[in-house]
Amino acid sequence: MPLLEIQNLKTYFHTRAGTTKAVDDVSFSLEKGEILGIVGESGSGKSVTCYSLLGLLPSPPAKVEGGQAQFGGKDLLQLPEALLREIRGKRISMIFQDPMSCLNPYLRILGQVAEPLLAHNPEITGEEAEKQALEMLKKVGIRDAEERANSYPHEFSGGMRQRVMIAMALITNPDILLADEPTTALDVTVQARILKLLKELRNELDVSVIFITHDLGVVAEVADRIVVMYRGKVVEQGIAKEIFDNPKHPYVKGLLSCRPTFSTTSRILPTVEDFMEGRIVTEETKPLAGIATTEGYRPLLEVRDLKVHFTSKSQQTVRAVDGVSLKIPAGKTLGLVGESGCGKTTTGRAILQLVQPASGSILYNDTNLASLTRAELLPYRKKLQIIFQDPYASLNPRMTIGQALEEPILFHQIANNGEEARARAVSLLEEVGLDPEHLDRYPHEFSGGQRQRICVARALAVEPEFIVCDECVSAMDVSIQAQVLNLLRELQDKRNLTYLFISHDLSVVKFISDQVAVMKAGRIIEFNSAEEIYQNPKEAYTQELLAAVPGEG
Amino acid sequence: MEAEKQSTQGGSSLSRDAWIRMGKNKLAMASLWSFAIMIVLCFGLAWFCKDPNEINLTNKFAKVSAEHWMGTDALGRDLFSRILYGGQISILVGLVATMFSVCIGITYGSISGFAGGRTDATMMRVVDIMLSIPFLVLVIVLQAALAEWSSNTSHWLVEAWKWDKTLAGRVTNIIPLFFALGIFGWLTLARIVRSQVLSIKEREFIEAARALGYPESRILFRHIIPNTLGPTVVYATLTVPSFIMYEATLSYLGLGVEAPNSSWGILIKEGANFMETRPELLILPGIFFSVTLFALNFIGDGLRDALDVKASKD
């Protein structure tokens, strides 16, 4: 008999706008000691499913409309709040995406880890609880646990905080650990260590884990079995390896193939729509047009010894970018990878003169942008553009799409009058795959993927030659990511664009780039053609980064 | 998906969405109507009423009758007419002083927030200093300073422009009040606008605007200030009743509107003298006063809910 059995779970959200079937007839089970991965894109109902079990959803608007969740001979969905509270945190614990906001900044680590014990077991003494907490901190791999146990959460790094969260969740010796996107906010090398830790702890403590994530690579890495959810329904479930090798449902097929991996060689990614609508895409149809060797090309943009310094609040100089040199040939893509805080975003902004470099030169067709005045820079504003990570924040919420596109056209006098500008805006929208009828809409009426297309259109409005893509697909679901990546590719082919593609996602960078630069602590530590970097990494750090990518190798 | 559903309606701006949400808020809509009726009464019906300053000592403390809808006061003046004329001044003081403070507050706050650094620090210290000056003291000083100017202007209006003497008196009487309230009112607003600007200027669409080479003035006026308007409107709506309240307080203390002009503050003050014998002289102006304040506060709350950014994302 399975440890947890969910049958026909239905959770609906009743709002003024109508009823949303967030979880619609979901059934699956969890065996003792297994790791079950629940995968799905945003809005698929994967988190709502698990929150429903523990009665953690705000009600109203959420309401569990039916189904059963058998755990230890009881139906969790029928339990009164008082009994559920005894299970929650004691027999079923949770860890969340953001370990900083889940830890109380005013309490010492040791006290926080011990707290669930004290809350669920009135007989235990404080001393005993702290002793067990210390034990658990050692188990989750906190080095020098005795000394560090008395520090506060802000003194820990993101990965260490997540370890503390795991210790806190496991200290009551629960049967089930619910992990909701526990590694999404972490750097890839840290993520790899946390995933390894979870597997070890599962073996050691014989705990079952439900691992909720949007990341197929992560699931491939940890899960024994997986449940794939799509729009509130389970579309496929089974042994992880079987699903990855031989997916049955078209959505799952699409999801698996639209994600670029190290072995992707096609120039255009298949999309989920292709599979859902039965269009058959074979990967061989669009092979890579030869490996780019960039020797001998004249660089469109050359960065020489760029340094950007910030002054921190404690008056110390932070060398965000500390001597970066790059060359990007026209019509090619340079991928800039690195973990958070390595200075890759600052480099991109310094190239566009959005932050003032401390020293170094930025040669665009042999003109040093860093030495130009504001007025002299204006013609170059047309040539160099940027697309940001968050399409929600990169559009002015009080301007229609038409206004957002026409403004740069008129400002730079690319069109002579409003009519001409509008015609250009229409053709831009068509070019990025949006309906020109949407010109009079406001940004909040579009989905994330559509908004990013609008941002691309706005960048294209001034007919640029060079675009900095700053993590521009990082916040997206893989199916949307594939569409935007394809769009960037198409535009590059059509307009001979040059990209600086900044990302922390090595698979995406591999897919889109001709050359790759690996950045660490403000410097570029390895710079080579994409093929060379991925097949023959020379630096130890590059090797570590590549090895940490989940689901590869 | 959502966008496709609305394809026939065309664009729906944030402010239009807010109006639709506001329309569903019954309390706010009722308040909006009450305030509208109050405006119509005070600024429309008042012109057809009796002269509020006509004294008739033979008919003081008259009961409610067809001639005097709410009776008369201690000097035999028609109370209903005095309430409506008083309302004109009270509401006008509230609205005009708010307009003053919104204009100053937005300009000052947005410049301070946008400039940042040392300019911002200096400008905000000035606000801090002004906030530490006792309100009443400043008003008394201003009233004294402007007293001569106000009587000169009154004469000038009568002589050069052939204004009616009472009207000129009424207008020049409240101008120092506008100044006093306007000078104080913008301080908090400037802080609100500044904090809005600080957060908006970090958003990526501002950086996109910089990357497109727009000059700073265009970024400030086209991209930043329009995005601060939501909270500003809410705060401004809530400022109107507080200004009306200030006016009443000052008039009650003899520092604001002066007799024979009426305002709700004056009427409440006069009514308080006869509280035990003729309570309606206090209660009736009090009702008008409270209804207006409640209505404006509920409108402000309704606007805040309607403009709530989180709600607009659903």
Which range does the strand content of chain A fall in?
A: 15-25%
**End-to-end C-alpha gap of chain A:** 35 Å
SSE succession of chain B: HHHHHHHHHHHH
Tell me the radius of gyration of chain A. 26 Å
Give the percentage of residues in beta strands of chain B: under 5%
Low-confidence stretches of chain A: 283-292
Overall mean pLDDT score of chain A? Answer: 88
Query: What global shape of chain A is seen?
Result: globular
- Structural class category of chain B: mainly alpha
Give the proportion of residues in helices of chain B: over 70%
Which class best fits the helix and strand makeup of chain A? Answer: alpha/beta
User: What is the overall number of helices of chain B?
Assistant: 12
Structural Rg of chain B: 23 Å
Oligomer: heterodimer
Largest sheet of chain A: 6 strands, mixed
Total strand count of chain A, please? 20
In DSSP terms (H or I, runs of 4 or more residues), the helix count of chain A works out at 21
Count of individual beta strands of chain B: 0
Question: How would you sum up this structure, described in words?
Answer:
The complex is a heterodimer of chains A (553) and B (314). Chain A has 553 residues and is α/β, with parallel strands linked by helices. In chain A, 37% of the residues lie in helices and 25% in strands. Chain A contains 21 helices and 20 strands. Chain A has a six-stranded mixed beta sheet with strand order 6-7-8-3-9-10, sandwiched between helices. Chain A has a six-stranded mixed beta sheet with strand order 16-17-18-13-19-20, with helices on both faces. A four-stranded antiparallel beta sheet of chain A has the order 2-1-4-5. Chain B is an all-alpha fold. Chain B contains twelve helices and no strands. Chain B has helices at residues 2-5, 14-24, 26-43, 79-115, 117-131, 135-161, 165-200, 204-211, 216-252, 264-273, 280-307, 309-313. The A-B interface holds A 15, 17, 349, 352, 354, 377-378, 381-382, 384-386, 388-390, 393-398, 400, 407-408, 411-412, 437-438, 440-442, 444-447, 450, 455, 458-459, 462 and B 1-3, 6-7, 10-14, 203-205, 207-214, 218, 222-223, 226-227, 312-314.
